[in-house]
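Quick one:
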Amino acid sequence: MPLLEPKPGALRPRTISGPAPDRVPDRRSTGTPEPLRSELAELLGAGKVLSGVSDLVRYASDASPYRFLPQVVVIAEDIDDVSAVLSYAHGKQREVVFRAAGTSLNGQAQGEDILVDVRRHWAGIEVLEEGLRARIQPGTTVVRANAALARHGRVLGPDPASAIACTLGGVVANNASGMTAGTTRNSYRTLSSLTFVLPSGTVVDTADPLADEELAHAEPSLCRGLMEIKKEIEADPELVARIRAKYEIKNTTGYRLDAYLDGTTPVEILRGLMVGSEGTLGFIAEVVFDTLPLDRELTSALLFFPSLPAAAAAVPLFNEAGALAVELMDGNTLRASVSVAGVPADWAELPKDTTALLVEFRAPDEAGRAEYERRAAGVLAGLDLVAPVASVTNAFTRDAKTISGYWKARKAFVTAVGGARASGTTLITEDFAVPPSRLAEACEALLELQAEHGFDAAVAGHAAHGNLHFLLAFDAARPADVERYAAFMDAFCRLTVERFDGSLKAEHSTGRNMAPFLELEWGPRATEMMWRTKRVVDPDLVLAPRILLDRDPKAHLRGLKTIPQVEAVADPCIECGFCEPTCPSEDLTTTPRQRIVLRREMMRQQPGSPVLDGLLDAYGYDAVDTCAGDSTCKLACPVGIDTGALMKDFRHRRHSPREERAAELAALRFGAVEVAARLAVAAADTITDAVGDGILRAVTGAARKAVRPDLVPEWLPQIPGAAARKLPATRRVGAAAVYYPACVNRIFGGPDGGSGPSLPEAVVAVSERAGRPVWIPGDVRGTCCATIWHSKGYDAGNRVMANRIVEAAWGWTAGGRLPLVVDASSCTLGIAHEVVPYLTDDNRSLHSELRIVDSIVWAAEELLPHLEVRRTVGSAVLHPTCSMRHLDDEAQLRAVAEACADEVVVPYDAGCCAFAGDRGMLHPELTESATAREAAEVTAREFDAHLSANRMCEVGMDRATGRSYYSALLELERATRP
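Output:
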């Protein structure tokens, strides 16, 4: 047994609210039952089958208010895997649901039998015809695809608010549209072709000229059935007119029956039916989009009105003026948005009825923008706007930062409002459309209905298209609350259909939420055509039963999830999944959302339950140990939930008093620790030169077993040699800044084989060259930014070092008169921000006077204007660190690189390397997984320089790519050397 095992029971919840009515039952504690587990493992390979109770629970939730526990989760790698699972399901009479990002709002990504993950191995984009088209894998996020297209001045038509996380397979399967897509730029209208797998396993590529011939041979009854339905629809003029009328406004309720009118062959019909089919007719394996011009000349305004109907009445005026987007946000939405970084704090004081319109015009050139501004001014002149708080301007702007802030607030609608809901309540997101000309009337009716049923919902939406969203919160554990919600839904659906002839789902797709009301909207004749379509394509009902079609009038009340209270930092989470694409452990263990989902299930259980024990057994490694602690999840989360901070707290809870004391002593005696560490690195370098890495790997491997794998690093061959014993000589007199070489750069040297200066030597040299000399204090040894202790949850050691570095920095900088330049981005972040909660009151006051500057920012803003670049390299690839994202100084890294290289590339998939100080040595598999996609981009071509801004991140990228990464400041020194 290891000497320092985690403290037993440390992760067990301190208070448990269970047993909850929707808790996972004890009989599911063993995970996937036999023979399902062993049969799928034999069919696909054990590595593709997730079967533990922890695996099943973390896949049971998505962004919707529903929760269904699968029997098993399959990680499909290719079409062969998908076909094999479908064949197995047919033979065993089982059901299959496909899941990608899990951002759907109506339960489309949940299943009760076999759940297939089609995100992990399904990402990639191929830009075609210089951007006019794009071939995209279904697990690719909208943001990732648009990043590749932007270089060609193109963009996808669909632009959902969840673009940071939602994937193109889900966008097509739900016909998600977004802010500007309307009815003309959505997937149905802009999809060129797609490849899909039918429930039978047949693969169809709609772009293949022989597709219809091959389908007729493989699936004759399916082809015959589709053509019969088409014939019946076309023979009914009333039904044809009804179908055409329904799609004049946004509509994703049920199957796209106009596919039978627009398509002339079975393949063409299936191409249309797959859009918005929610995975019930087949698996979308690849899509090819026709792209749209990316108009870059913008003018936008956030306009405030006294009421929701008043704002709605202005929408047609902006539509007529040519606005591409007219987005509505009511008072509840605006006030909740203050939790979003950058939103004015005084929005919290807005009157209850205040409503805003975000209006944007986009043009291809300056002349077009000027014309739009003229039209906008004419509309503004006739409006009665209000300015109830100081930040309101009610003016159009071209400022990109301001416009970005407006959109950030708007896109955070679901998450910000959801995060502000009462603790313990379930969030429902409704989505409907009415003819745009009746939007104001619909707003008034909605407000009356909410008041009648005791709801005070937040309202926002794509007002230009008559499409509104509103959020309801209620306690799913209370039957009376569920009954209130049910009564509201019945009344709301009748209102939308009978009074406005609207769409019950405009862009979020039918899902479990609206399936029972399908016939209310479409009528019996059209609804029967949808049921027949399902039976023709999927006669055995293998795919996603009850997700789009369900005759149970109470189906929308089944599976509603309770939201038990968890730790305060995570409690606002609505499980939207926006955090997942940025998480380094996403493809290895768990994501931030899943870490919270698992925690909530623990709270649903009663003490001593086998399910709780099983979840706790897995949580240590799956959630705590393999969290990089980089907190990029906080940046992606619209309400700033920092799951990384929660995991660090859990690490602290697992420490024994002996372990905490040892860490505190290390901080108290860090001067000796630093010297010993540098000597150990030097000795290790000597050993590897003499006999290779084998001995060091064996020794560290044995130590990891004896002490604890999460405490003792594994030796990696990419570990650099020791730094020089002495730092460069500098003078305090005349210094423009105090230079603080981070301890990592005082212990470890530069790239192997590097013949140039060390990083401290380079910083000193380029600063002197620019006439901005720096001074290195003589007593920096023995100090640290405290990140070593902070990342591992050693609170006592963290307090010691945090206060020491602030007191020292105060003296070095003469009370903050000089800036403190730090040469490792994670250390800059640590000193600037992360130490603050651990400071004494006096030292917090001192800290507020310090000016802490990252060395990259120092170089970009203070040195570059005074340096002469004498030589450049041809190309450089950058690895912006996660700390740089927190500090918002990626632009400065690019500026330094662009001074040194003719071509600078930031990989599309650049993200956290997860090396996280020494986490990459404690869990090398974490860095390997986190860097896989970025490494593939980097190694796909040659670069002359591989640049970053943190030594251990550079080591992590060395390991991932086999290329030598080093500080951009070393390259700047070389480029400007006389």
